[in-house]
Amino acid sequence: MKIPSIAISRLSVYARNLDLLDQKGVEVVSSVRLADICGINPAQIRKDLAYFGQFGVRGVGYYVKELLFEIRRILGLDKEWRLGLVGVGNLGSSLLRHAQLVMNGNYTFVAGFDRKPKRIGLKVEGIEVAPLGDMNRLIREKGIEIGVIAAKPGWAQQAADMLVKAEVCGILNFSPIQLQCPADVFVENVDFSLKLDVLRYRLISAGSRPRIRSKSAA
Amino acid sequence: MKIPSIAISRLSVYARNLDLLDQKGVEVVSSVRLADICGINPAQIRKDLAYFGQFGVRGVGYYVKELLFEIRRILGLDKEWRLGLVGVGNLGSSLLRHAQLVMNGNYTFVAGFDRKPKRIGLKVEGIEVAPLGDMNRLIREKGIEIGVIAAKPGWAQQAADMLVKAEVCGILNFSPIQLQCPADVFVENVDFSLKLDVLRYRLISAGSRPRIRSKSAA
Across-strand partners of A29? Predict the structure, then answer.
């Protein structure tokens, strides 16, 4: 059974909020309360968890520590994963700077690569930018599992080809390019202009554009 | 009928690739060829398009210009939308710099806000950073439809509350916080650590971690 990506990403939202509850000393939480904290429907939480087994006690709720432990195990959050960044420009640098903040210590950037000679040797957040030619060696030496592409569209595919050749297991793609990769390399795309398109579609479907109305009324 | 977000985001992938085909002078494309270019299953394309009507000619394929026009109309890509950025730090600045590149001219940042006094008045890509106190006025004056939150987790909810008060229609959220917003405000989350969690889950499900193996073998 293939579990939908969206269910997996909700699972990691549950883990974060369970972690916060645990830190506050909360021992038991009802599915209604957990749903409320996560901004998700209670039935959805029960359905998502049912993919992985039987959790919670009817009439009581979930034991916070126990559910957190189980979700962490399911998601592999109990191990640290190592990332290599390709493209250390504006976006790439910002990813390195934000990494600690947003990645909850589960992921660590251990190398960065760029094709621009002027960037080679620069240090960003303790990561020294290496030339593309060092990718193969460094990915093996540093045990990098996931390649993160923050390259401009013009060389994002080249970056992906090099990462595949260096045998990373998966790629997180920030470029707006649909990458062509072998079927056994997992690719997840972070494309915020697609997100904007979804948002815009929802707004159009919901009715007109109030900003425009208020402007022409002025 | 509520159309899944994932189908809408695929629609915008189709539009991009149809645009490229159109620029190359291609007039007709089969669903198999289009699927191949987009890295998607042909049956999926037919299913996604079926949400919106009858497209394509059996045994011929899709007329590129016609399908592109229809998808653009469906997604509202024929109009420009205006964005306001809240949080002009590393991530926010990088978004402003990348906006032109990745947004295909469909979205324009027209204002930026920050709470740090030292950032007020700075110009990033032609956008002058304004204080939070100016948000209400500028969002109305500049006709901003969508608020983009690149604030740190500590004040992301405050940023959302202010955007809601200023009556934006939708929010694109880059912070790792699950925002609490009224039901009539549409929120899309761009959370790359969730994407990493999905990627990691797929890797774990698929088998072991080759990087680790090669390390211990070395």
Answer: A62
| A134-143: average pLDDT | 96
**Nearest-CA distance from A105 to chain B in Å?**
10
Which residue has 């016609």 as its token pair?
B66
**Residue B155 CA, distance from chain mean position:** 22
Nearest to B186 among A95, A170, A202 (CB): A202
| Nearest-angstrom CA–CA distance, B69 and B53 | 13
Q: What is the mean pLDDT of residues B32-36?
A: 90
Model pLDDT, residue B3:
78
The DSSP symbol for A166 reads T
Structure tokens at A24: 């506050």
**Which among A44-53, A169-178, B4-13, B62-71 has the top mean pLDDT?**
B62-71
H helices of B39-86, where?
42-50, 64-75
What is the rounded (10 degree) CA torsion for B98, B103, B106, B111?
-30
Question: Domain B5-74 belongs to what architecture?
Answer: Orthogonal Bundle (1.10)
Residue A143 is which amino acid? G
Phi (first) and psi of residue A148, to 5 degrees: -110, 120
Count CA atoms closer than 13 A to A177's CA, side-chain side: 17
Adjacent-strand bridge partners of B148:
B85, B172
Token code pair at residue A168: 């990373």
CB–CB of B139 and A211 under 8 A?
Answer: yes
Would you state the pLDDT for residue A159?
A: 97
User: CB–CB of A194 and B97 under 8 A?
Assistant: no
CATH 3.40.50.1970 fits A5-73, yes or no: no
**Domain map (residue ranges) of chain A:** 5-73, 81-194
Fold of A81-194: Rossmann fold (3.40.50)
Give the helix ranges, DSSP H, for chain B.
5-23, 31-38, 42-50, 64-75, 90-102, 135-141, 153-165, 192-206, 210-217
The neighbouring-strand residues paired with B48 are none
Confidence at B152, pLDDT banded by 50, 70, 90:
confident
